[in-house]
């Protein structure tokens, strides 16, 4: 019998972090953050990282484990998550995997079989000189039956790197945990409003200053732009490529498009129980968790 883990996944600005804290506190749990940007130190407001006060005493793992600019792969995330989850379970606690980076969530939840071989930086620098459609054509020549999204530049590049290193193999799965998957989102118009409110709040709290400090410290513009969304548009603004109002407008639109892509990813999984966030998601989720953990009421 596999050990049990609870997954809370959802879009940006959906309230999954707060819900995760409430449920982990109720069920003696600890949280593994599944966010590809929150692993980096000092990427706080831009990544929507939970604050120590918001954690409300609930231990969080996989936050602030690398310095900006350091290499960090999905395999690194999976390995560190497995270590944290196994430690949580060994202490009789309940692991909660909470986040919105779909690949990171699934890599751990479904046990993707990944290579931990580091990329060839010289090859990566060469591949960066090509546009995404060109990279995809290169991949199709080497792997005609590929099912990788032609617009997913990161995955296309990683596949080319692995093929060059003779390290490519179809992704298998070796699940380590029994799962309860809970989904968190809102109707489209409400979610758009929440995204706008959240963006404005973070700008007022100093998100521009956070990015400026990172650039001033020597974090490369290339790294910041690759992080996407907030860090990309704020870097473009601070380096004079776009104005402030254009930055705000385009960033808000990009976050909403990203949330739509997140939902497309999560909706593919029929195991997800989608919570009614407009009513009482804590009670609804608690009932599901009690049944999953075989707890008497």
Kindly describe this structure.
This protein has 297 residues and is of the alpha/beta class. It folds into three domains: 1-114 and 172-186 and 258-297, Rossmann fold (3-Layer(aba) Sandwich), CATH 3.40.50.300; 115-170; 189-257, Orthogonal Bundle (Helix Hairpins), CATH 1.10.287.890. It is 51% helix and 10% strand. It is built from 13 helices and six strands. It has helices at residues 16-26, 52-55, 74-90, 102-109, 121-127, 132-142, 153-164, 188-205, 207-216, 221-227, 229-238, 244-267, 281-292, and strands at residues 4-10, 29-34, 60-61, 94-99, 178-184, 273-274. It has a six-stranded parallel sheet, sandwiched between helices. Strand 2 (29-34), helix 2 and strand 3 form a beta-alpha-beta unit. Helix 3 (74-90) crosses helix 4 and helix 10 packs antiparallel against helix 11 (229-238). The longest helix is centred in the last third of the chain and has 24 residues, at 244-267. The radius of gyration is 20 Å and the shape is globular.
């Amino acid at each position: 019998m596999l050990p049990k883990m609870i997954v809370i996944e959802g879009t940006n600005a959906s309230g999954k972090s707060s819900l995760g804290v409430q449920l982990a506190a109720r069920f003696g749990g600890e949280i593994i953050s599944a966010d590809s940007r929150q692993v980096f130190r000092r990427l706080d407001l831009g990544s929507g990282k939970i604050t120590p006060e918001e954690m409300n005493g609930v231990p969080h793992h996989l936050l602030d484990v690398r310095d900006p600019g350091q290499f960090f792969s999905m395999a690194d995330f999976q390995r560190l998550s497995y270590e944290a989850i196994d430690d949580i379970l060994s202490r009789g606690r309940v692991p909660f995997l909470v986040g919105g980076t779909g690949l990171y969530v699934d890599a751990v939840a479904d046990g993707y079989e990944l290579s931990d071989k580091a990329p060839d930086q010289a090859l990566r620098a060469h591949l960066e000189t090509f546009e995404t459609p060109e990279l995809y054509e290169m991949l199709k020549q080497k792997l005609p039956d590929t099912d990788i999204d032609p617009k997913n530049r990161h995955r296309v590049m990683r596949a080319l790197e692995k093929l060059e290193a003779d390290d490519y193999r179809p992704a298998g799965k070796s699940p380590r945990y029994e799962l309860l998957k809970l989904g968190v989102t809102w109707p489209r118009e409400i979610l758009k409003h929440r995204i706008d409110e959240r963006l404005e709040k973070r700008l007022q709290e100093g998100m521009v200053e956070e990015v400026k400090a990172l650039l001033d410290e020597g974090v490369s513009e290339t790294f910041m732009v690759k992080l996407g969304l907030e860090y990309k548009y704020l870097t473009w603004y601070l380096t004079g490529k776009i104005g402030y109002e254009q930055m705000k407008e385009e960033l808000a639109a990009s976050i909403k498009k990203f949330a739509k892509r997140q939902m497309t990813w999560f909706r593919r999984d029929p195991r997800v129980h989608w919570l009614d966030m407009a009513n009482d998601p804590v009670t609804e989720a608690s009932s599901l968790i009690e049944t999953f953990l075989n707890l008497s009421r």
